[in-house]
Amino acid sequence: MVKLFCSILAIALLCVPALSWGQNDSEEISALWTSNLKLRAQELNEALEKAYKNGDIKSRPAIQNQEIDITDIVASYIPVKTSFADAETILREAGFKVEPHPDLNQASDPDRPNDWYAVTAHMRPSYAQGIYEKSYYHVILMPFAPGNYSLIAHVKANYVWAGP
Question: Is 41 part of a structural domain of the chain?
């Protein structure tokens, strides 16, 4: 069995061209990763618009400023443990305005909200705007700890109808 495995491995190594990892390769990998993030952003945007137009996201909640949870849509494109940099890139590419990371000096403020260290993003989609209607998407990216903006610990997303 071991001889068979070694033989198959040897044949596979002979058949696969040698990989040379140089600067051009890392630039290609970076370009591929960037295009992957742009594709995820485009797909997120399309999923949000489709959900809105199909009525999965109510175009007009019963109460002004009522939030409708759309976390399942956003989290499928920005899952937990995604890097913050990638999540912010996806949101920006999808048309969201991503707010800067909160100032760590807020930690000493006793009146701060519990999620004061979250990064927020929002977008007013053109297809959900009208003379009497204003609405937006709001996304909250939570790190594992204040100041640790390496990976996403939790994603929360809402659609909000702000009224006329």
Answer: yes
Look at residue 22 and tell me if it is in a domain.
Answer: no
Residue span of the structural domain in which 102 resides: 31-161
HEC letters along the chain: CHHHHHHHHHHHHHHCCCCCCCHHHHHHHHHHHHHHHHHHHHHHHHHHHHHHHCCCCCCCCCCCCCEEECHHHHHCCCCCCCEHHHHHHHHHHCCCEECCCCCHHHHHCCCCCCCCCCEEEEECCHHHCCCCCCEEEEEEEEECCCCCCCEEEEEEEEEEECCC
Dump pLDDT digits (tens) for 57-88: 765 555 666 788 999 999 999 999 999 999 99
The whole-model pTM stands at 0.74
**Could you give the number of structural domains in the chain?**
1
